[in-house]
C-alpha cells in the first residue's frame, strides 16, 4: 500500500514539474518573440505616407522622452510602497502618502498618453483615424494579471499584473496598441 502511495506521489510531482517547465518555456518564447518583432504605430496604420511616418516617429520619440522619467519615478514609488507594506508594522501615513503619489503619477502618464494619441491622430486622414481609433487607441477596461493583482486600465503581462493599470496583455500592449506610444504602467 505504501509503495502505491509513493508511486502516486512521485507521478503527481513529476506532472507538476513538467507543467512548470512547459509554462516557463512558453513564457520565455513569447518574450523572445515579442522582443524580436516590435510593433510600432506606423507599421500598422494603413496608407501612411513617408512624411506621416517621420512625423509619427518624431512624436513617439518626444513622447518617450517625456514619459520615461515619470515612469522611473513611478517604479521607485511602487518599490517604496512594497517596502512600506512589507514591514511588520506598516506606517499607514507613509503608505497612504505613497499611494496618492502613485495615483498622481499614473494620472499624469494617462494625460501624456492621450495627448500623444491626439497629436498622432492630427496627422492622419479620416480613413486612418478610423483604423487608429479601432486598433491603436487601445480601448481599455478592467484587467487582471493572471498571476498578479487586480487592476483597471491598460494591459501589462499575463504573469506580471501589478495592480492598477495592469491587465492581461504582455509588455503593456493591448489589442493593436502601439509600442512606445503609451507604455504607461
UniProtKB/TrEMBL annotation:
Q: Does the keyword Coiled coil apply?
A: no
Q: What is this protein called?
A: Protein refolding chaperone Spy/CpxP family
Report if keyword Isomerase is assigned. no
* Pfam families listed in its UniProt record: Metal_resist
Q: Region (Disordered): which ranges?
A: 141-185
Q: Where is the signal peptide?
A: 1-25
One CC-aspect GO term: periplasmic space
Which UniProt keywords are listed?
Answer: Signal
Return the InterPro entries for the record. Answer: LTXXQ (IPR012899), Metal_resist (IPR025961)
Start-end of Gly residues biased regions: 143-166
Amino acid at each position: 500500500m505504501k509503495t502505491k502511495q509513493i508511486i502516486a506521489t512521485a507521478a503527481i510531482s513529476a506532472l507538476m514539474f513538467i507543467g512548470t517547465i512547459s509554462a516557463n518555456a512558453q513564457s520565455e518564447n513569447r518574450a523572445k518573440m515579442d522582443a524580436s518583432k516590435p510593433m510600432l504605430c506606423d507599421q500598422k496604420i494603413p496608407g501612411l505616407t513617408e512624411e506621416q511616418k517621420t512625423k509619427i516617429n518624431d512624436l513617439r520619440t518626444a513622447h518617450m522622452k517625456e514619459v520615461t522619467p515619470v515612469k522611473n519615478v513611478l517604479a521607485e514609488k511602487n518599490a517604496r510602497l512594497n517596502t512600506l507594506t512589507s514591514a511588520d508594522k506598516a506606517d499607514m501615513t507613509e503608505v497612504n502618502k505613497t499611494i496618492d503619489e502613485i495615483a498622481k503619477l499614473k494620472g499624469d502618464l494617462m494625460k501624456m498618453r492621450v495627448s500623444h494619441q491626439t497629436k498622432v491622430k492630427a496627422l492622419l486622414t479620416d480613413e486612418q483615424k478610423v483604423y487608429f481609433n479601432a486598433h491603436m487607441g487601445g480601448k481599455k477596461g478592467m484587467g487582471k494579471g493572471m498571476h498578479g493583482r487586480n487592476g483597471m486600465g491598460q494591459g501589462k503581462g499575463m504573469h506580471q499584473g501589478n495592480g492598477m493599470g495592469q491587465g492581461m496583455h504582455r509588455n503593456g500592449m493591448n489589442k493593436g496598441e502601439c509600442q512606445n506610444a503609451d507604455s504607461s504602467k
